[in-house]
Each structure stands twice: as structure tokens, then as C-alpha cells.
Records
---
Amino acid sequence: MIFTTNKVSNAYWKVSIDNPPINLFDTDFSRQLMVLMDEMEANENLQVVVFETANPDFFVAHVELLHANDFPKGTGKTGLSIAWPDIAKRIEQAPFVSIASIRGRARGLGSEFIQAFDIRFASKEKAFFAQPEIGIGAFPGGGGLERLHLLTGKARALEIILSGDDYNAGLAAQYGWVNRAIPDAELDGFTDRFAARIASFDKQAIASVKAIMNRNATLPVNEHIMDTQTQFFAALQWKEARERIKMLFEKGLQQNSDVELNLGKYL
Amino acid sequence: MIFTTNKVSNAYWKVSIDNPPINLFDTDFSRQLMVLMDEMEANENLQVVVFETANPDFFVAHVELLHANDFPKGTGKTGLSIAWPDIAKRIEQAPFVSIASIRGRARGLGSEFIQAFDIRFASKEKAFFAQPEIGIGAFPGGGGLERLHLLTGKARALEIILSGDDYNAGLAAQYGWVNRAIPDAELDGFTDRFAARIASFDKQAIASVKAIMNRNATLPVNEHIMDTQTQFFAALQWKEARERIKMLFEKGLQQNSDVELNLGKYL
Amino acid sequence: MIFTTNKVSNAYWKVSIDNPPINLFDTDFSRQLMVLMDEMEANENLQVVVFETANPDFFVAHVELLHANDFPKGTGKTGLSIAWPDIAKRIEQAPFVSIASIRGRARGLGSEFIQAFDIRFASKEKAFFAQPEIGIGAFPGGGGLERLHLLTGKARALEIILSGDDYNAGLAAQYGWVNRAIPDAELDGFTDRFAARIASFDKQAIASVKAIMNRNATLPVNEHIMDTQTQFFAALQWKEARERIKMLFEKGLQQNSDVELNLGKYL
């Protein structure tokens, strides 16, 4: 089980992510997340869910690259591909509040994973963020090009995506990538109090806030998300990309290695 | 008189808000604001207006809840309801510059009041902000769901609205809720110099800046504002909301009380 | 030669701006920039270009006002006026990455010049920014009313444009006007490593990032840019503007003077 759900109350769930060794977003992650999403949507009392990591070094490392063809195929209820874009849209549209409490690395699809949440809190000392795809000769394919600029503005999104470098939580908060950077010792308590507070409010009012905000605010366009994902999978087949990926695997990619701890330096 | 206008010059007016005990946005506030708005629009020399509070603890506490049905009804010249949305749009569209110089609490409709201004300066030590409606089982109905995310981005607007909690001026400035947090001892001097500077410029150029910016930038949609306000008044009638409001009144709501000073804790 | 190009590599060019005494954006600047733009677009290997200044006090001071009628006339390949709006759009749409490394003053058209770049890094101690047009009885005419609010939000753009005042790099970074403020001693090294890193990546991936982002993000509207420019040139003929400009020239405008170093104080 990659996702362990702690039902703090009927209204407040905590989900812990544990996919050793580095919390890769692999095909199992994808399939189990679909089951969890169905379960959350089916629960009429759920008001707030917090996602956290069991691995303090990695929140979600990135997409698993060796078996990219094995991700589930097809179209979900949102009209988007079920592998991830459909789940991202369902998190956005859900009547409950989604919070990412981030410790460790959230890079590539890991960064795009948290961008789909309503709210992001990050450990000031232990959370790191990147969109490293440019370093493998590609570009963000899981929503980073559709959602990151809505958080940070276009100029800072271009800086992040074109550098592919690691960003600490302080800079991520300054840029709007996350809501706040919180001292690591306080993160769990802060997030827990924040979520419990929301769980104490009226479910109908929470659902109204999300529905009205989703009507008013600029949201990613479905056609953009799907076109970019298609371009991303094509880019992974470029000669340049295949060579860069091969070299990174030789250095320790997808293992609990210095490459994964400090990916920004290796690109 | 809730609003006292100090005409520093023909081009620069200062308006002090004084509606004891806690500067509630009540029916008198609404009616007198309509008169003041007419007066400002009618004045051809006015270039800049600063709103400040006579009460250092409260800028505008929030909407008055016991007589919500007595607010003026009808449609204003903008096509929006006259109770407040029409005034907010007229402030936005005015050829003069509106500045809120904020000391004390600006919660709920008080927060939405300042969101309608062009520019917001806040006392670093003494200004506090909240959209506390979720705590009474409702949601922002006076523009907060239409304007706040344009200032802070969607993620931080959701955090603010879903928590209903109090935010100090430093965090409000970091989020973009206000332009700047300024040390309390410097706030009045800073705002006065800023406004006097604008008053020294050419009225036609100022009006052009506002007109062009209003054409270029994303503005709240009239239909969204009206639909949300309608939903808000309906939500106040929900059983959950009526019970929460009743409980808060028993603790001291709408009085100069610890509840009003520290509303975030009581929700 | 106002622009000296140092081809660090085929993929990475550095352009130094030198137009004594204060790097005015004059007719020569405009014509030579058009030639440079053609050269950059024609080069198939170029991935990243950094613009910096040879004059530590001035990045680009502002537009030259005495010969405003002599700027090149006509429409460029983007459908925009060639004097500057066409170049700005071509920088935005280029398949290579444009970075401004800013030291000294970037005011008016100098500020609008850097707003057209993808990414902006500024010297924390030595970079200063302003849209001072209100001080000459006009308003930004070279894109400032179309691009600045996309970086800073509407409220802070209005503050900047309506005050006409000088902003240091720290506040500019807080507002999003620049990506980051970097200690002056580190700026050159930081920008160089950042650009060299981008130059090490795959050109096709970089071009895809820019193309997709330009499709997804909010961009300035051509019609708005042209209409504002037309209004700007008309405003320069207003009596109020002509008098304000005349007074500033008498104090030392367009010379290496205290007026140009501290323009905000003189407006």
C-alpha cells in the first residue's frame, strides 16, 4: 500500500505516501491513487485531506521513467487522461479541501502533483522543489506548464522550468509555488491545526467556496493539459532525451542516491 | 456622521471612518457611503482620496448581521446592487485614485471594502485581516470571492477564506492582500506623502492610467459578484449558519469585546 | 555601436549596452536594436541571451524625448509598430531565452525594455526601477500598462505607475517586477552560471517551453499596446506635459545629472 489513510475524523483524513525507496510516481502509485480518489469522492463527510510523506527525504521524487508506457491508459470522468491529468482535475474540482504538507523533494511530476492541491505548506529546511525535465531534454508534461505560472507568474515559472534547478522552500514561498514555508519542527502541528479547523466548519460552506472560486479564477485549460502531455511523451523519444536519461540512470537515477538527493547539480 | 472628510486640497481628500463602537459596516454606513461616493464623483478636481479609521483597533470590523435585511435595495448605475457592489465598482472605475490606509481589523466586508480600493497600505503592527465568513457557516458575499484571488492568487485566497483566520499585515503584504506593510509610526506620514505626490500630478494623466489599466487587467465579473452575493444571503439562512451566528453573539459579537478583537480564535 | 555582443558560445550570447552618457533609448538605440534582433532571430544555435549594461549607474535611463518624432515608423512582422512594440513581441515569442541582468536605473521605456524579457535578475544594491511618466504629465506608452500588472498584479502596478517614484531592487523583487534581487558582487556570476546552464540544455526543449508557455499564459494584447502607445504620444503634446518636460530639461534631464540619478525626487 503506497497510500495509508489515517481517518482522524469523518471530516479529516491524513494520507501518508510511502513508495520506497524514493516515492517515485510509478504505475502502482498511479493505480492506487485512482482507487484512493474514488474513495475520497464517495465519502460524503470528507471536508479536508492532508497528504504527507513517510520518507523525510522525498515527498514525490518524480515520474518513473523506465516503464512510462505501462501507465494506465484511457479517459476519465473529466475528459482528461486517467494516468494523472484526470486525477489532478478531480482534486481541483472536489468539494473537499486538499492540502499538501511537504517535506523532502517534490520534483517533476512530484511538483505537478502538489500543484493540483488547493493549498501547499512546506518544511522550510527540508522541502525542495524542481521542474527538472529540461535536464533530460524534455519539459513538464503533467501540468507544470499549465499550473505553475498560475502560482508564480510567467517570469518565475519560466525561470524554474528553464533552469531545471532545485529551489528551497523559502524561495518557493517567495515565488508563490507554495503558500508558506514553515519551520520543520512546526510544520506537522501547524498543518494539523489548520486542517482540523477546516474540519470544524460547515461542509456546505466549504463546498460553496471551492465551487465559486473554481468558477471565478483562471484554471488550466483541458486542451492545453492534454496537448502538452502528448508533446511530453513524444519528447521523451527524442535522441537527445534518451541519451540524457541513460546518462542519469548510470549515475544513480531512481535509486536512493546522491543524484536523487541533489538532482539539480547533475543535470 | 460616519465619514468625516478632510479636504487637504481640492485634489486630495482624507476620509476618516468613525462608527462606534467597532466600525461595523451597517445600514447607516452603507447609506452614508453612497452619499460620499456621489460627492466624490461629482467633484471634478479630486485626484486622490485616502480612507483611514478614527478607531485604532478597527478599520471596518465586518457587516452588521442583525439587520441585514434593512440594507438599501435596488440596482445602481453600474448595474450592480446598491448595497455595496455598486459602490465597489464605482471606486474601481473612478477617475481618481483610492487608497486605504489600514490600522485595526478589516474582516469580512471590511476586508472586501479595502479590496475595492486601488492601493492598500497597512500598519505592520496594528492591521489585521480576515475573511471569517466560513466561521459563521457561510462564505464571502461582498466581493471577496471575486477580488481576493486577483490580489493573492487562488491558492492563498483559498487558504485565507477556508481558514477564516486572522492574518497580520506582514503576511498580508507577502500574499499581496495589501501593497505594503509599513511600521505603524511611519504609516500616516508615508501615506500622506504618497497621496500628496499623486495630487501634484496631472489629473488627466491619472484618469488615463486608471482607464487603461481597467481595460487591460482582469477585473471581477459583475454576474459573479451578484450571484455570489445572492448565494451569501441564502447561506445566512442555513440552520448551521444561524446557530453559529447565535453562539458568537452570545460571546460578544458586534460589541467592543475580545471576540471582535480576536475573532479568528473564536470561530 | 550601442550593443556589443560577446558570443560566449554558439548557444549563449552576452550583449552589453553602452550609449553614453546615460544609456538613453534614443533613435540610434532603436535602429541598432532592430539589427541585433534580426541577427539573434537568424541564428539557429542561439539558446540564451543576457543583456547587461556597460554603465553601472544606468541600465536604460528612459526614452529620448527631444527627437521622439524621429523614431522609425512602420509596422513590423508582428503587426506592431517597429519603434519598440514589435521588438518587444519578438523577444517574447523568440525560441531563445532572454535575460536582463540589471544594474543601474531602468526607468520608463528602460523598465518597459526589461519587462519584455523572459527573466529579470537585479543588483540588490545598484538596480533601481521606475515608471516616471506620470511626472511628465503622461503615462507608460511602451508596454508598461500592458505588461507590468502581469508581473506585479494590478494594485502594485497602479502604485508604481501612479507614484512615478523610484523602487529599489528588494522591493521590485517583492512585487515581482524582477525575478530576484541578488547581491551586486554575486550578480554577474549568478547570471552567467544561470545562462550557461540553459545553454547546456537541448534547444528544442527550450523552444517548446517558451512556445507552450506563450500559448498558456496571459500575454499583452496587441491592440491594447498600440492604442496605449498612440495615447502616449498624444499625451506628450498636452500643455501640462510640455511644461513639465521643459522644467525637467532645465534641471538636467537626459544628462549625467542628479536629476537622472534621483529622478523620483524631482518629479
---
Amino acid sequence: MGSGAFTLALVLALSTCVTPVERKLSGLWRNEQDSLMEISALADDGGFQGEYLTRVTLAGGCTRISPLRGAQQQPSEVAWPTFAFTVWWDTFSNATTAFAGQCFVDASGREMLSTTWMLREAVGSLEEDWKATRVGRNVFTRKRTPKGKILHSLSPSCEDAALPVL
Amino acid sequence: MGSGAFTLALVLALSTCVTPVERKLSGLWRNEQDSLMEISALADDGGFQGEYLTRVTLAGGCTRISPLRGAQQQPSEVAWPTFAFTVWWDTFSNATTAFAGQCFVDASGREMLSTTWMLREAVGSLEEDWKATRVGRNVFTRKRTPKGKILHSLSPSCEDAALPVL
Amino acid sequence: MGSGAFTLALVLALSTCVTPVERKLSGLWRNEQDSLMEISALADDGGFQGEYLTRVTLAGGCTRISPLRGAQQQPSEVAWPTFAFTVWWDTFSNATTAFAGQCFVDASGREMLSTTWMLREAVGSLEEDWKATRVGRNVFTRKRTPKGKILHSLSPSCEDAALPVL
Amino acid sequence: MGSGAFTLALVLALSTCVTPVERKLSGLWRNEQDSLMEISALADDGGFQGEYLTRVTLAGGCTRISPLRGAQQQPSEVAWPTFAFTVWWDTFSNATTAFAGQCFVDASGREMLSTTWMLREAVGSLEEDWKATRVGRNVFTRKRTPKGKILHSLSPSCEDAALPVL
């Protein structure tokens, strides 16, 4: 590939999840475990909100759409912005999760959110604090969908309580 | 200490960082490295905002007060709520940090926020992604202060750019 | 797939990296970054040694084959044994790495070592200890090769010093 | 403290857990949870063996002395050597643990091993792999004892099986 083509590819890449103006962290994303998240448009300070629908749980069982909240580092000079967000599993879990990651565009132009997460479980006492934190990785890719808040149409209908999730 | 005294201590403990009604995650906290954070009153859904003033940086240099945003798991049945929040280092860093932890009250009635954090640095390409995430621990204790947003009075006045921080 | 076929597949799987008798953690493995490792036959207590040739470094530069040492949990009742090992980067780095993981066989019969690692850098003082530990993930798959200690034939010939690696 | 006194303190510090000649990682260490480990004399290549007696377990229950194996980075130019080791919980657990850390001497001359660990549990399938790894921190300080392999005298006598531990 000549340098001209490379420049073009780079420009295309920058027009996707990177450009400050468009702030394309927003949208619908899916990870390797088929969990979904939908991120809102970014506020001027980089803040965003969204929803997370996990497909995996610590204890099995039914999950619900969970709120997420975070911020993208303002990408003044960095081509690939970093971000972090937290998900709280509301009524069906006593755990909390935090993700931190960076947005990339791979050679084929595909947007990726490369993230590391911590899953913090509630423990009953300070003596059990040592075992409360799990760590892992997730890569999200953009999921193309029809317009609209589609996450809600994907939510399971069950009402069972479930335990911590990702 | 008799069981009556113990009950009293427990009640006092529960009246501090634990009680759902009072949501005392709010306030000023200091960690082992003398970094400070101030957390706002919690919203009805557990969400909170705040400010973080770090004392340590990856590259040395001057720091600034940075915004934080997160949520506390609603402590329906759990005595010690978990929480998570993100800090973004705004104009002086290309990194982002996420904390996840749990609030405890130790035997002497001292409130503690036992947290694990990830510090995500921006890297220039997907090939460098493997090395972008640091992990560590911080324990915060409540810092008693005069009323008011004291974090601002503690902010350094320098204007130098600095690198990622905790 | 009928249950007979499933049983057969399971038996095939168990005959690869799982069987206690054969202890097939030994052999040559490659991860996503094209780093290679060669693990010796396991000792009776699960201990093993080997060599690691990284393709990525914290500071760039030339790498050398590095010794590794670890142990596999004795898989008495667990079909998929866990293991952990450490790599030390000898003369070309002041860092140390530890991996912990588990051996799996995926649906297509491919052996995988799913690992999480920590990379510990040396820091100059206790005050810098907070930033010394990176965390990440690596998946290794078996690399088929001609007989012999092939890692040595793949070693770079340069003599330059380099910095920490994975 | 004058610079002369500081130099003296530094020399004293270097004569403890740091000096390459004496290789003082060996000995008996205790962490915040009262777990104990005993590290052998270091081999010429930095390798060491030892034993670990944990006081905490994932599932409660009785523990046994467990073997550990690791290596210290050869501290050619680094005053404070890094190290890593693995512990395997032999017959009473299906988990494996890896530690990575660095040896420090604090201002009062007290030797410390500042470590981060991963605890890898065995899971039943690749689908559960995401939740298998916990992360945490431990600080070990030297425990002064009478001569001899004292860890064995501290071992619990129970014969019950127990689950993963640190």
C-alpha cells in the first residue's frame, strides 16, 4: 500500500471512533461474550451515560439492563482517546464494575474498544476484602443496528433475581 | 467491651458510611499517598460526582483538581455498599482511571474505602495496547475538615502540564 | 451432534492438554503477539521449567530467550488444570512477570492456555511502588514444530540491552 | 538527618534484603493477613523455593503448607530487586496463585516485600473463563524466629479438604 493509500485509510479511521467533533464512542457495542452496551452522545466535558446488558453472571440467572456512566479523556492531541466507565447492577446484584480502555481502529477500519475491567463484589467484612476483586478483559466492536434504543428490545423478560455480572 | 457497647459501636458505624438514608460516601477522603477526593451527595439512583486531587503522577510534575463520576450500588440488603467511579485527568494527562471498592467501618469505628484501581494510559497503536493498563490498591479514610469545598483551596497553583496520575 | 459424538470429542479433548498422565502442558506455545514459550515435561509434583521468547518490550529493543519456572495444579478432579509460572528477563530488563491461567480445549479441539499476567517493574523507591504493576491477558495456542529445542533457533542474534518485556 | 547519617542508613538498608551477595529474600515472611512464607536460599540464577502457609481461603476451611517456587531478578544495577513466585495449593484446592513484587527497606530499616497477586480458580469451561482471576495486594514483613524450618511447626493438624487460598 502506498503512502497515499495509507493516508486515506488513516483519515477514514480518524473519522470513526476518534474524531473529537463527532465523538463516536456513542452507539451500540458488543463484546466477545455477546454482552451489549449503548453509549449516549458525549457531553462537552467528555462525560457520557448509557446502558449495559450483560450475557454472563457470576451466579447464573437472569439479567437486566443496567445503567453505565463514564467519561472519555478529551482527545486533544491523542489520536486514540482513553475512557472509563462504571456499571452498576442495580437490583439484581451486589457487585459493581469499572471498565477502562481505549478506542482503536484496526487495519480493516473496524472500530474496537479495548478494555480492562474490575468486578467488585460486596463482602461481609474487612477480613474478606482480599478476595473481592476480579479482573478481566473485553474487546467491544460496533454493532450495526436499526435506529432507536434497541437495547430495551433485547432485554430479557424474566423477573428473577440474579447475581453479579459483566 | 460488652455486647451492649458493641451494639452501640455497630449502630454508630452504620450511621456513618453505610446507611442508605444518609449515603455518607459523600465527603472528603484521603488515601495513603495523601491524594484527596471529595464526593458529592448521592443522587437517588446512587450516582455521585466529585473532585480528585492526586499527589502522585506517572511522570512527575504539577497536578490539577480532576473531575470524578461514579455510582454506589444501592445497599438494599448489603450492609457495606460497593461503589465505582472514574477520574479523568482533563488537560494535563492522556490517561484515565477507574476505581472500584467497598465501604467499611473498622473495629475502632473508622470509615474506610477499600479500593482497587486501574490506570489506563493512551498508547499510539493497537500493538502497544498490551502494556497500557496498570493496577493498584488504595485505602481512603475520611478527612475531617471545615465546611466548604476545601479541595479548591488545596489545589496547586502551577500551570505546568503533567502526565498521568492517581 | 449426538451424545456419542460428544463423548468422543470429549475424550479427544482430554487426550490433549488435560490428561494427568500425559501432562501435555509441555511443548511449544505461541500467543497473540507472536511470543513463544517452550515448557518442559512436568515433574511428579507438577513443577515445570521452560523458556520464553517475547516479541514485545516496554521500551522496544532486542530481546533474548528468558527462563520460566512454574507449576501446574495437580488435576485430580478438575478436567482443566490451572497453572502459574514466572519469567525473569535476566540480563536485559529489571522487570519480572508472572502468569496464571488454565488449559482449555475449544470446540474444534484446539488447545488453549488462557492466561492473565502481571508485569512488575523495578522502581527506585517505595513512593513509586504504586505504579509498578501492569496487568494483561494472553491466550497461547500450541505451535506445531519439528522436534527439538527450536526456541534457540528463533532467538535474535543482537546483543543490545533492552527493557522489560512480555 | 545529615547526609552522612542518610548514607549510613542507606548502607544499612542495602545490607538487608537487597545485597546481591547475601540474597536476603530468603527467610520467613508474614503478611497483613498473618499468612506466612519461608523462602530458601537463592540459587545462582536467582531461583528459589519455599513454603507458604495461608490464613485465608476462598471457601473457608483448613489449609496446609503449600510449595512455592520463583525467581528474583538479578539485581545487577537495581538497588531493589523485583521477584515473582507461584504457589500451588496442592491437594486442598483447584486454584493457583502468582505473586510479583519488589523488595524495599522503609525509612525505619524494616524490610518489606510489596507484592501484587493473582488467584486463578479452575472453571468448568471456556465460557466461565472470564470470572476466574482475582487480583489483590500483600505486603510481607520479615518475621524473626528461632532457627529452623518453623513453618512446619505452625501447620494446622486438620485433614479436611479446603478451597483456594492466599
